[in-house]
Amino acid sequence: MNLFDVYPINDIIIDKAQGSLVWDEKGQEYLDMYGGHAVISIGHTHPHYVKRLTDQLNKVGFYSNSVRIPIQQELAAKLGKVSGKEDYQLFLCNSGAEANENALKLASFYNGKKKIIAFKKSFHGRTSLAVAATDNPKIVAPVNETDNVVFLPWEDQAALEEAFKQYEVSSVIIEGIQGVGGIQVASEAFLQKIRSLCDAHNAVFIADSVQCGYGRSGKFFSHDWAGVNADIYSMAKGIGNGFPMGAIIIAPHIAPHYGMLGTTFGGNHLACAAALAVLEVIEEENLINNALTLGDYIMTELRKLPNITEVRGRGLMIGIELPEAFAHVRKNLLAKHKIFTGEAKPNVIRLLPSLALTKADADKFLAALKSELEN
Ligand SMILES: Cc1ncc(COP(=O)(O)O)c(C=O)c1O
User: Fold this and answer.
1) What region does 37 belong to: left with phi over 0, alpha with psi -120 to 50, or beta?
2) Residue 173 contacts residue 116 (beta carbons within 8 Å)
3) How many whole angstroms separate alpha carbon 174 and alpha carbon 206?
4) Cβ proximity of 173 and 206 under 8 Å
5) Is pLDDT above 90 for 375?
6) What's the confidence (pLDDT) of residue 165?
7) How far is the CA of 319 from the centre of ligand 1 (A)?
8) Residue 246: its pLDDT value, please?
9) Beta 115-119 vs 149-152: how paired, if at all?
10) Which Pfam families does UniProt cross-reference here (predicted)?
11) Residue in 333, 59, 319 with CA at minimum distance from that of residue 180
């Protein structure tokens, strides 16, 4: 049997990983400024994480949601504390798309309405509603097409107001910092506008925090920068440091009933142990603060380099837009300097490293990029 060939891959086999470093099977070391696509939040194979998962696996790895699973409640309490959303309710699932799918569905259950507002260049996942709310026709199959989603221009307050007049809006879904869309930071004013329009029209504000959340921006949720709360936050990626997991947290006014949402694997013992280990390390090592200060440092240094069109981002979610003539730089960073980075079209280098990145790692990256940009 062959693999279903949907990924354009680098011909590299990663055999070992630790902190912000990975090694291939020949022992070649790489610096990971990509974090396996924003997934590695606390660093690869962190000893506390490995121990907590191993201990849990030796006790019980899985039992279904038909029994009481105290480690879920333990996780809810910890997540409430670290995120500051202690009065929210936690629903656990398995991926970012599933988190958004549940969020959009829950919003519609809550207010009985159908229209979803999403934004140009958004990415919310590949399941049916999540992909319908994703602004990329190439990944939307005919069966996913729906009139229930309206795409508005990014940061256009007048268009948003108009849409609320025109439609019975169920929910507005927005990434606090667009990832796939090229690291576009939503302004505080725009997020505040969404909050006030949702309040006025009984619509649900969904903060897609799958990529920009979990401390990466220097606050737990990047939407927190606007000083307003969303009604539902979706998360995945960094939540389990590589253990497949997703979640939504739900404001207290949205009430659950039996059968409303459900999943076989979501919230299993092992996933919860992984998520608890992540939050414990984030707290213990002050990683949100590290993301903020190191991110500021990297962006300041980047702005001193030549041949960069624009530097965007917050914390350790950084986009470096390059002119067309420097389109080769990302490839060279990997081939010549052994540094993994992410990309966004047309020509943006995306940095999504572990929140435990060190200044020495950052300096190594900056020196490599400088040598490429000065050539
Ligand atoms: C903002 C955002 N939302 C949702 C998703 C989908 O997450 P997953 O791939 O875990 O389904 C992604 C994945 O890249 C994302 O960046």
Assistant:
1) left
2) yes
3) 7
4) yes
5) no
6) 98
7) 17
8) 98
9) parallel
10) Aminotran_3
11) 319
Give whole-number Cα distances, 278 to 242, 309, 357, in Å. Answer: 10, 35, 15
Residue 141 token pair? 């199959």
Per-residue pLDDT of 7-39, as tens digits, reads 999 999 999 999 999 999 999 999 999 999 999
Q: Does ligand 1 come within 6 angstroms of the Cβ of 175? A: yes
The pair of structure tokens assigned to 40 is 């590695």
Residue 174 has pLDDT above 90, yes or no: yes
- The pLDDT tens digits of the residues spanning 113-123 come to 999 999 999 99
Cβ(46) – ligand 1 distance below 6 Å? no
CATH of domain 47-284: 3.40.640.10
Rg (CA), the chain: 20
CA of 334 to the centre of ligand 1 (A): 24
Buried/exposed 165-193: b ≥16 CB within 10 Å, e otherwise: eebebbbbbbbbbbbbbbbbbbeeebbeb
Please tell me if the CB atom of residue 179 comes closer than 6 angstroms to any atom of ligand 1: yes
Nearest residue (by CA) to ligand 1, atom 7, is 96
Q: What's the CATH fold of domain 14-46+286-374?
A: Aspartate Aminotransferase, domain 1 (3.90.1150)
Pocket probe mutation, ligand 1, options 37, 210, 234, max atoms within 8 Å of Cβ: 210
d(Cα 159, Cα 156) in Å, to the nearest integer? 5
Tell me the per-residue pLDDT of 186-237, one tens digit each, with 9 for 90 and over: 999 999 999 999 999 999 999 999 999 999 999 999 999 999 999 999 999 9
Cβ neighbours of residue 284 closer than 8 Å, sequence gap 6 or more: 48
CA of 95 to the centre of ligand 1 (A): 8
Is the CB of residue 125 below 6 angstroms from any atom belonging to ligand 1?
Answer: yes
Peptide linkage before 346 cis (omega within 30 of 0): yes
Please work out whether the CB of residue 134 comes within 6 Å of at least one atom of ligand 1: no
Rounded distance between C-alpha atoms, residue 15 and residue 334, angstroms: 17
Number of C-beta neighbours around residue 87 at 10 A: 10
Q: What is the pLDDT of residue 65?
A: 97
Query: Are 349 and 323 in contact, with CB atoms under 8 Å apart?
Result: no
* Domain ranges across the chain: 14-46+286-374, 47-284
